[in-house]
Amino acid sequence: AKQLSGNRFQLYSPSQEERGIENVELENDLYKALRNDELNVVYQPKFNSKTNMIIGLEALLRWNRPNKGVVRPQEFIPLAEETGLIIPIGEWILRKSCEQTKFWHNQGFPHLSVSVNLSPQQFNQEDLVNKVQLILTETQLPAASLELELTENLIIHNTEKTLAVIHNLKELGVKISIDDFGTGYSSLAYLKNFPVDTLKIDKTFIDGLPDNPNNAAITNTVITLANSLQLEVIAEGVEKEEQLNYLTDHGCHLIQGFYYCRPLKPEDVIERVHTS
Ligand code: C2E
Ligand code: CA
Ligand code: CA
Ligand code: CA
Known about the structure:
It comes from Halobacillus seohaensis. This protein is an alpha/beta fold. The chain has 12 helices and 9 strands. The chain has an 8-stranded mixed β-barrel with strand order 1-2-4-5-6-7-8-9, surrounded by 5 helices. Strand 6 (about 175-180), helix 8 (about 190-195) and strand 7 (about 200) form a beta-alpha-beta unit. Helix 1 (about 15-35) packs across helix 2, helix 3 (about 85-105) packs parallel to helix 5 (about 130-140) and helix 5 runs parallel beside helix 7. It starts with 15 loop residues before the first helix and ends with a helix. Bound molecules: ligand C2E and calcium ion (CA) (3 copies). One calcium ion binds next to loops.
């Protein structure tokens, strides 16, 4: 049976064929979604807890599927990865969020930066660096206002090529962060070779704070590691004040999560920037 999170269970498990049909339908719809303007981007702010100011925004994909409501990324990104659709979709969200951020700069908020998630497929395409450069040129967004979030698992594979790509991206002036840090299979050794800027502590570790001793130990280790390598560290998925307090007490002052703010529609961002 399909694995479901939490206490939910499923009495009926669709057969292989039914699942296949569902997937084909999803794939067709996703293909059209890009053309028909059904994809959009929401922006979740990242805060500095010392100043309570917004320091940046993470672009998150949403799909408004006709007659089915908003579909969350977990439900279609894996399929998009499998089918290669993630390449045009990823390029679309990159361009869209650079355009949007340039717009905010022009509105008088030049300190805002944007983070975009890169999937492994996207990262491995031959002309990624050129595409990023082209999009920055087209949108006139300063490279330093763009951060790319990569996952650890991407970094362990194909080390030499990966290193070269990250170097070239850094050369453009964009920032690199390691997303969901601590959940991958990599050794820590790669960190000293890769010119990354930020470690992002995964929500699964933040969830257990402050009471779960294992999560607390992992969190402290990542913060210490980041400090000693002179990297920034940010916590994702912070929902409660106790979690925030724990993190700030232990030296992590960059915070993202529902405690501060949920993902926002682009038109709601500036209002939130004003009140922060
Ligand atoms: P992620 O990169 O780890 O993004 C964080 C996810 O946690 C987002 O879910 C965000 O809405 C959610 N979140 C943030 N704060 C909290 C909180 O305090 N509590 C809870 N319960 N959730 C919180 P979302 O938007 O559904 O995205 C899920 C995943 O889908 C992302 O995980 C990312 O891996 C992927 N994704 C989203 N947009 C893109 C994209 O444009 N490209 C690629 N390749 N992946 C994307
Ligand atoms: Ca992310
Ligand atoms: Ca993350
Ligand atoms: Ca995560």
